[in-house]
Every structure is written in structure tokens, then in C-alpha cells.
Amino acid sequence: MAHHYGELASFTAALRGEPDAAPVLYLHGMAGTGKTTLLHRFADEARRTGRAAVRVSGACLRPSRRDFARAVRHAADVPDAVLLVDDVDRAAGLETWLREGFLPGVSHRAVTVLAGRRAPHPMWTADPGWASCARVRRLGRATREEAHRIMDAHAVPPAPRPRVLAFCAGNVLALHLASADAARGPVDWRPSAGVTAALLARFVGTSPSARCLTALRMCALAGTVTEDLLRTELGPHAAEMFRRLRERSFTSREPAGLAIDPVVAHVVVEEALRHDRDGFLALHARLDAHLRHRPFWGAESRGVVPERLR
């Protein structure tokens, strides 16, 4: 939790009612960055100070204001309650209603923490009223030292640690799963089928379509993708898939196109090599042939190109 020190400090300052503290904290980041764990810690801190903590999840609510109001009625009635909303972006319209309808009527002594995978609506920072009382924090990667502490907790021997570090790319969830796996593994450890399947489901979903997997594999191999590059494999479906990729919390906009987070790329490659090796090698060959004319195209500019493919 050391890499969440700033978020913990902001939350405890709000609990104490410090003058410059913001009563609303919005956390966002891709799966595995520790949002839910941090909300558990916040709930413990709130109870330790004698404040009521109300926790709800947007993933468990129907997109209904009535359902949400029923779930958080205690937070509205108790002046100094702490409201913790996980997966706020999973319930359609919930974030907007919270900002425009519910939170303005909550006691000024209440503390609210919202957490979701996607970045919040710009109005949280663009509107002067919200900008003064809400803080937006993006949860990032664990540092190398924090990663080693996680591996220490799982008793990972020295030899496989470099591979675990490279595969996980600082993602906390991946570090825990991979460390538990590597603690029992050989020197030349590679993530097990169980680890990669669990992470793919968490990052991408339980049943990604063939088009989605193709787009993700292209991202992993090319480093960045554009709609034009996706069109070489997906044809008329490229525009829709590019839009969907752009909306995912694990992608980022780069000057050359869309890129996916390294840990997602690593998971996608391992899954492809395990379940569709020939198809993945063929895709790699087609991309390599198509992109040879791109300036600086080479191993250093590619995405995740495993050594056994070079």
C-alpha cells in the first residue's frame, strides 16, 4: 500500500476535516491497480475514527437512482458518514447522477470516495464548484521496491524474480498472482495458464470476441495501433474496434496511435502462444511485412515481441 500513500493522506485529511482537504476523492485506474483494496483500507480508517462507512458497488446495482439511494440512505442521513462507491463507472448514469443529483445534498461533513477503471467525466475538474471540493487521483504502478516486497511476502526465490517483474510491469494484482505462481516454479518461470487466464478475464472480460483478441494481439506486437493498421486484419470492423479499444482503461493515446498497458500485452501474448500459436505467429509475420516500411520499425519500436519469436 506504500504506493497509495498520497491517496491515504488525502483521505485521512478529509476525515479530520482539514481546511484544504477535499470531501470527494475520485480514484481511477485499470484493473489490478489496488482500487478495491484501497477502499477496504479507507473503510477501516473511517471506522477506527468512529465514523460510519457505507460501501456500495456500481457493478452490483441496476442503473436506477432509486436502487442507489436505497443502498446509501445511511450515508445521506448520517452527517459524518463515509460513502465508498466502487466500480462507479459500471452502472450507467451513476457517476453523472452522483455529481449532479446526490452529492450536492449530502452533508458537508461527509466524505465520499468514488473508484472506477475509467477516468472521470471532465466536469469533476472543469466545473469550479467541483474542482474546489473534489480531487482526482490516477492509481499507477507499484515501484520496483514495492514489487519486491510483494514477492517477499510470497517467498519467491531470487532466480525467477526478473521474469516476474518484467511480466507484471508494476500491476499489483498481476504481482500477487504471478508471485504465488513463481514461488512454486522453476528458474525459467513463465506464467501458468491459470494466471494468464485469470488476468485476461480481469483486464479484458470473460469472453472476448475474436476481433477483440486480434486487435489486442496487434497492439501487443506493434506497440501502437491506428485504425488503418487494424483495418489490415479487421477490414470494415476496424473503426468500431478502434473506438472500443480507445474506451478501455488499459489503453493510452500515444502520438503514433493507441497503446495497451504492458501487463495486458504480456498476458495477451502468453494466452495467444498457449492457445493459438500458429495463428499468432502468422499474425506476427503479416504485421512485420506490413510495417517494414515504417520509420524506425525494429525490435526496439515493437510492442511485446517475445525472445522466442525473434
TrEMBL record:
<dbReference type="InterPro" id="IPR003959">
    <property type="entry name" value="ATPase_AAA_core"/>
</dbReference>
<dbReference type="InterPro" id="IPR027417">
    <property type="entry name" value="P-loop_NTPase"/>
</dbReference>
<feature type="domain" description="AAA+ ATPase">
    <location>
        <begin position="21"/>
        <end position="179"/>
    </location>
</feature>
<dbReference type="Pfam" id="PF00004">
    <property type="entry name" value="AAA"/>
</dbReference>
<protein>
    <recommendedName>
        <fullName>AAA+ ATPase domain-containing protein</fullName>
    </recommendedName>
</protein>
<dbReference type="InterPro" id="IPR003593">
    <property type="entry name" value="AAA+_ATPase"/>
</dbReference>
